[in-house]
Write a structure and sequence with these properties.
Blueprint (H helix, E strand, L loop, with lengths): L1 E3 L2 E14 L16 E15 L3 E14 L7 E15 L2 E14 L10 E14 L6 E14 L11 E15 L2 E14 L7 E15 L2 E14 L7 E15 L2 E13 L6 E16 L2 E14 L4 E17 L2 E14 L6 E13 L1
Antiparallel strand pairs: 1-2, 2-3, 2-19, 3-4, 4-5, 5-6, 6-7, 7-8, 8-9, 9-10, 10-11, 11-12, 12-13, 13-14, 14-15, 15-16, 16-17, 17-18, 18-19
Length: 362
């Protein structure tokens, strides 16, 4: 919906009816009151885009309401507000700005039998790039700050509240018109509000390559090492090999495959100082007809909790069919299966989710 020259307003609405046979993600043999429910989701989104001669702006808000027909106490509304701005001052100087606010309630959480996790995050970031897009060398410098706060009663989850300030710098060097090698450094300072034993500084150094539309593939691959230094002596410092990859292969115009993989440290929970995480996901999207496509996915997540005896291995499988009934309406059906194996019996579970979804936009 065009409001004025260069300003476009796009409202959209997602309506979904879902059956989740274990929405608390608990072990069926341990918790006899395992919850299953039909869930109705209403998620309106309002997006405003504005383009100038050398700038672009986007403001987006989504309210996602979940109604649990078998457990009304779990009804909740999540809010997501994001803003982005991009500036091209000249051929050599570009700047991206972003900010976000998210208010979320989760039913599948560690403390769900006391109270669902209720939290909000705030983040701001900026990325400055020096070097023409066609230049052999480009330099990128970025910064980010985010806050995590919980609104549970009786100070539940207060030990997870934290601030994080980060910096990164990347140097790109073109070795061909569509391929660049890179060297990247990262630094993040974590400051916990009530659990200072987890205060730490993460440092990472990676080398890699990025390419665009080369032999029907595009993507990036980074390999390096990450170190986590704790500010207090409660926990030992940690280090690990680190990698990140995002690859898209399009053998046909109507069929594409994606591969995403990452290894590195995540922040700890419960009594763990940190979590060494390795995740790999595969996806396939295929158009069978002009307006009919399927998506199949598989993801494997391995988590090793540091300082405690716990290791989780989560497998996720997904399959969906979408029919683009109109220019403004998509209708989809889908199935998701999750299987988590854990050293802690309480954290082992399986989960089946069936969904019928309608997405409409002007």
């Amino acid at each position: 919906m065009r409001l004025t020259d260069g300003v476009i307003f796009t409202p959209s609405l997602k309506v979904a009816e879902t059956y989740d046979d274990n929405f608390r993600a608990v072990n069926r043999s341990v918790h006899k009151d395992k919850r299953s429910s039909w869930i109705t989701t209403l998620a309106p989104t309002f997006q405003l885009n504005a383009d100038g001669r050398k700038s672009a702006y986007q403001l987006k808000y989504t309210a996602s309401s979940d109604t649990f027909h078998s457990s009304h106490s779990d009804n909740n509304v999540d809010h997501h507000l994001t803003g982005d701005a991009g500036f091209e001052f000249n051929s050599r100087n570009r700047l991206l700005l972003n900010a976000g606010y998210h208010k979320v309630e989760e039913t599948a959480s560690v403390d769900q039998y006391i109270e669902n996790d209720k939290y909000n995050t705030k983040d701001v970031g900026a990325v400055y790039t020096f070097g023409a897009k066609t230049a052999r060398t480009q330099v990128e410098v970025g910064t980010k700050y985010d806050e995590l706060r919980y609104s549970n009663s009786n100070r539940l989850n207060n030990n997870k509240e934290r601030d994080a300030a980060g910096l990164h710098s990347t140097v790109f060097y073109a070795i061909s018109p569509k391929t660049k090698v890179l060297l990247e450094g990262r630094y993040t300072d974590y400051d916990y509000k009530s659990f200072s034993a987890r205060d730490s500084k993460n440092k990472g150094l990676l080398a890699g390559v990025t390419w665009d539309a080369t032999a029907k593939t595009s993507g990036s691959f980074k390999l390096g090492r990450e170190k986590k230094d704790f500010k207090k002596s409660v926990y030992d410092d940690k280090s690990t090999g680190m990698w990140e990859a995002e690859i898209v292969w399009e053998p046909l115009t109507y069929s594409s495959f994606t591969l995403n993989t990452r290894r590195g440290f995540d922040e700890g929970e419960d009594n763990a100082s940190s979590i060494k995480t390795q995740k790999t996901s595969l996806g396939w999207k295929h158009y069978w007809l002009d307006r009919v496509y399927t998506e199949a996915s598989y993801a494997r997540t391995d988590k090793k909790y540091q300082e405690i005896k716990r290791e989780d291995n989560l497998d996720n499988y997904g399959l969906s069919l979408t029919y683009q009934a109109r220019r403004w309406l998509d209708i989809g059906v889908g199935y998701t299966y999750a299987d988590n194996a854990s050293d802690l019996k309480n954290e082992t579970y399986t989960r089946n989710i069936y969904a019928l979804t309608f997405n409409a936009s002007l």
